[in-house]
Specification:
Helix content: 25-40%
CATH architecture of the largest domain: 3-Layer(bba) Sandwich
Number of strands: 20
CATH superfamily of the largest domain: FAD/NAD(P)-binding domain
Distance between the termini: 12 Å
Shape: globular
Structural class: alpha/beta
CATH topology of the largest domain: FAD/NAD(P)-binding domain
Number of domains: 3
Bound molecules: flavin-adenine dinucleotide
Strand content: 15-25%
CATH class of the largest domain: Alpha Beta
């Protein structure tokens, strides 16, 4: 029986270990913290449910529901309210809808007429670098297809929303492979997105599992808690992998646990830890791999949860939330209307907002003292929503290295890590540093990786 170690008990490591166990492989998961879940962590306080990391997911991969079923928690999946479908963007200091329907879009005031006309050029323009698998920044892609202003108000907010990143340096095919595929398959991005939307709607009408924004009844950590408890004593908390070296058969790990250090030999090692950690761990094995990992940068993110009496809101806030394009004079990156999407996130008569700050554009904001950060989040939220009272509740979650940045060159870096995996059979890089930070995508990759590992271990 081959020995397999998974490093890291975030959603990537946990779901990988779970899949491996289902395929009959016995694993050991080593997690440096005293809790499992990684970025997924839910705080429940004062009747509020505050997600310190991800708050919801869109299961395009159809990976979470099958996993929840296998864990016996399918009944705990919580679909978002209809508000979850409505996304807002700040333009000229005000909130605007981003309607998906063409007629409503052309009626909306999100863009001036000239920018809307420029967008129509997308229908005629030829394919560009992303469609050919070459890297270009999101800004370059968006300006090329839709024009600068439409790109700034429609695509750049996605970079901010998903990666807290800077669209000028984030690689479109690395961060948004779907868009590159749409351009490749449909030439026009607008036509591609329409076709994609139509397909989703048809799936929904046919009653199949069309992707729907979801979470779990009392928070996303229900999923990681269930995974961790299924792994039982195969999961070791408080065990940090410090380094990996070659051993006679496979690898020798140095593990720090309870202040002491020991070694552990294994045939296979899946590193489902952030790239900046993996970088130190693999250095003794291969300094080139370590250098590549060091080039995957992370940005700080702080989430400020603010709770208000419903009477402080000028009206219903029935949307997912809003994103702030870079040209707006605001420091916050956006906000999720947590209790509009999932009403139980706040006590009755209160509303909960999760304001995102920091990121590549305003990294310094993420380390402001609590009071200043809360005041900033409230002031900017008040300006946009017209709140008439201060928050009744505040909660801050900080991540010094919150989200990995798939900057230009990322595809080559990931390819070089793939070559490293081939150089060291039994070594695997997994997790949000490489392909897609979304929770469903990570779970889906875990299933594929588990099958690949089983195949390779059998050789
Ligand atoms: C603020 C924020 C909001 C987000 N919002 C969303 C969202 O709404 N929807 C969505 O789908 N995604 C969202 N994401 C992204 C998503 O949360 C992450 O991509 C995902 O949770 C990462 O999982 P992971 O297992 O790859 O990494 P992590 O969760 O970072 O897990 C890595 C684990 O490895 C452990 N570890 C580190 N070093 C070592 C070591 N040397 N030895 C052993 N263990 C080690 C860590 O302690 C950690 O538990 C968000 C992320 C953040 C930060």
């Amino acid at each position: 029986m081959k020995r397999v170690v998974v490093a890291g008990a975030g959603i990537s490591g946990l779901s990988l270990a779970f899949e491996l166990e289902r395929l009959g492989v016995s694993v050991r998961v080593l997690e440096s913290e005293q809790r499992a879940g990684g970025k997924i962590e839910t705080d429940r306080c004062g009747g509020y449910i505050c997600e310190r990391g991800p708050a919801s997911y869109l299961d395009r991969q159809n990976s979470i529901m099958p996993l929840a079923r296998s864990l016996g928690i399918a009944g705990r999946v919580l679909p978002a309210s209809a508000a979850g479908e409505r996304r807002l963007v700040v333009a000229d200091g005000r909130l605007h809808d981003t309607p998906l329907d063409a007629a409503a879009f052309f009626r909306s005031r999100l863009l001036p007429k000239s920018a809307k006309l420029r967008m129509l050029a997308d229908l005629l323009l030829p394919r560009g670098p992303s469609a050919r698998g070459q890297e270009e920044s999101v800004t370059a892609f968006a300006s090329r297809r839709l024009g600068a202003l439409a790109g700034e108000r429609l695509l750049q907010p996605l970079v901010s929303g998903l990666y807290a990143g800077d669209a000028d340096v984030v690689s479109l095919p690395a961060a948004f492979p779907l868009m590159a595929t749409l351009e490749r398959e449909h030439r026009s991005l607008v036509m591609g997105m329409r076709a994609d939307l139509k397909q989703q709607r048809a799936q929904r009408r046919a009653g199949s599992d069309a992707p729907r924004l979801s979470s779990f009844v009392t928070g996303l950590d229900e999923l990681t808690t269930a995974l961790a408890s299924r792994l039982g004593d195969r999961l070791r908390l408080g065990a940090r992998i410090v380094q990996v070296e070659r051993a006679e058969n496979g690898f020798r790990l140095t593990v720090e646990e309870n202040g002491s250090s020991s070694t552990l030999d294994t045939d296979a090692l899946a590193l489902a830890i952030p790239a900046h950690q993996a970088c130190a761990v693999v250095r003794p094995l291969d300094s080139d791999l370590s250098e590549i990992l060091a080039r995957i940068l992370y940005v700080p993110v702080a989430l400020v949860h603010l709770g208000y009496l419903a009477s402080a809101l000028p009206g219903p806030v029935d949307a997912y939330g809003f994103f702030v394009p870079v040209s707006e004079r605001l420091k916050i990156l956006g906000a999720i209307f947590a209790s509009s999407i999932f009403p139980d996130r706040a006590p009755a008569r209160f509303a909960l907002f999760s304001v995102r700050t920091g990121g590549a554009r305003h990294p310094e904001t993420a380390s402001l003292p609590d009071q200043e950060l809360t005041a900033l989040a409230h002031a900017e939220l008040r300006g946009l929503l017209g709140l008439t009272a201060p928050p009744a509740f505040a909660h801050i979650a900080r991540h010094q290295r919150g989200l990995p940045q798939y900057t230009l060159g990322h595809i080559d870096r990931v390819a070089a890590l793939g070559a490293g995996e081939r150089r060291y059979p039994g070594l695997y890089f997994h997790g949000n540093a490489y392909h897609n930070a979304g929770v469903p995508e990570l779970v889906s990759r875990s299933s594929k990786l588990a099958r690949r590992m089983v195949e390779e271990l059998a050789r």
